[in-house]
Each structure stands twice: as C-alpha cells, then as structure tokens.
C-alpha cells in the first residue's frame, strides 16, 4: 500500500504517516518496496509468530491434526482472511511434491485458495464485499478463477458440500480442499485446507477427503467451544 492510500485510510496528515512509516521501516515492521509502496516487514511476522504460537486456535489445530488418522501424507494448513488475502497461521507440510512450501505469514489472494473460498462462502453478502479485491487479481495459473460470477458459482458449491476446492488455481499440479471455522453462524475466523497432488485428486478421493477436512474443521471449532456447522 502506498503512502497516499495509508494517509487516506487513517485520516492522518501525509507528513505524519510518512514519519510513522519511516519509524516502522527502521524497526523492520514495514518494508519499503521499489515502487514506493509498503508491505509487512520481517519483524512483524516474527512478532506474529510469537503471538500465534500461543494462540488458542493454532493450538486447537495442532491438537486436531495430531489426533487425525490417515492424513499424514497430506499437507494441512490453517489460515485466516485479512482483506482480500489469506494469511497462513500454521502449516504441516508433507513430503508430497506440491511445488510450493506453505509458511506462517505467507499471503496469497483469497479467491484462488481453498480456505479463502470456504471462508468467503460462509459470510453474509455485506461482509463478503469487504474481502473481495477492488481489482480482480491476475491469474496465478491457467485455472485461477477469473471473475466474480465464477467465484460465486464455486462458493455456492462449497455451501452445499461443506467444503471448497482449489483445482490448481494457486499452483499447477496441486489440488486443495478447504473448510471454514466459524465462531458463530456466518462468521468465519479461520479455515483449514488439505493439499495433495493433482494426480491424487480422483473424484472418490476428493469426496472422502472433503468430508475429512470438514470434520477436522468441526473438531477445531468444538475445541474452541464454538458450535460446529
């Protein structure tokens, strides 16, 4: 985000925002990019990691994953929405050749991810608009969802099934299944995804693993003391 946009959103004088940003850059909480925009700096991720290590939902995710049987061959991730992006809170990467390694603090467009679609599908329309990109992101792969209409169709299917699909939209050769975690009806706070190779993603496997991911998300929900969907 650029300085002018930060000043507009905070309603602060541009000179004040500039001074604050310079301080945050010095502390490595922000990073000044080549185009003059700012993004999260490495220190902010380190601080976040310390907090998230103590976070109840991350702990609940770890406990649920540790007790899950038959999922050891798959990558499992926990993420949440921030604006139009998904941020990964915890990851258990497998040895499968997915072509990507998930990391805590990693950000990707929500509309291309299984957890992003699942969380968006669980929201009421008014809240949904706050998490849709102002400009549709460029495709990451040839199968990346290309329009709001196409996304709405995928979200409709996710509501019916209880889980969403990423059929290589984030990474070619990777297939992901996601389910939302809600602390109350229509209020998703996180999402869980299971990732496998596209070659493994046969219809019967997708259906079976979809039910497992939904159950895993419900397990975390119950551990948090919330009512499962």
Automatic annotation (TrEMBL):
It comes from Brucella ovis (strain ATCC 25840 / 63/290 / NCTC 10512). Residues 43-226 form the IclR-ED domain. One of its GO terms (molecular function) is DNA-binding transcription factor activity. This is Transcriptional regulator, IclR family. InterPro entries: GAF-like_dom_sf, HTH_MetabolicPath_Reg, Tscrpt_reg_IclR_C, Tscrpt_reg_IclR_N, WH-like_DNA-bd_sf, WH_DNA-bd_sf. GO terms for biological process: negative regulation of DNA-templated transcription. Keywords: DNA-binding, Transcription, Transcription regulation. It holds the Pfam family IclR_C. It comes from the Bacteria.
């Amino acid at each position: 985000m650029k300085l002018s946009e930060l000043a507009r959103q905070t309603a602060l004088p541009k000179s004040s925002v500039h001074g604050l940003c310079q301080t945050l850059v010095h502390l490595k909480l922000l990073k000044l990019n080549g185009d003059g925009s700012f993004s999260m700096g490495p220190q902010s991720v380190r601080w976040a990691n310390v907090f998230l290590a103590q976070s109840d939902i991350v702990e609940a995710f770890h406990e649920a994953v540790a007790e899950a049987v038959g999922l050891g061959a798959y990558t499992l991730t926990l993420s949440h929405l921030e604006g139009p992006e998904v941020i990964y809170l915890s990851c258990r990467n497998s040895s499968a050749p997915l072509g990507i390694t998930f990391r805590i603090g990693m950000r990707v467009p929500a509309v291309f991810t299984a957890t992003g679609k699942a969380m968006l599908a669980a929201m009421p329309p008014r809240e949904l608009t706050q998490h849709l990109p102002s400009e549709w992101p460029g495709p990451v792969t040839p199968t990346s969802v290309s329009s709001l209409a196409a996304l709405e169709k995928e979200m409709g299917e996710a509501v019916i099934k209880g889980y969403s699909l990423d059929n290589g939209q984030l990474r070619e050769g990777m297939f992901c299944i996601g389910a939302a975690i809600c602390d109350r009806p229509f209020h998703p706070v996180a999402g869980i995804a299971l990732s496998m190779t596209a070659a493994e993603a046969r219809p019967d496997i997708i259906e079976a693993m979809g039910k497992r991911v939904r159950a895993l998300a419900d397990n975390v929900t119950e551990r948090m003391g919330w009512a499962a969907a």
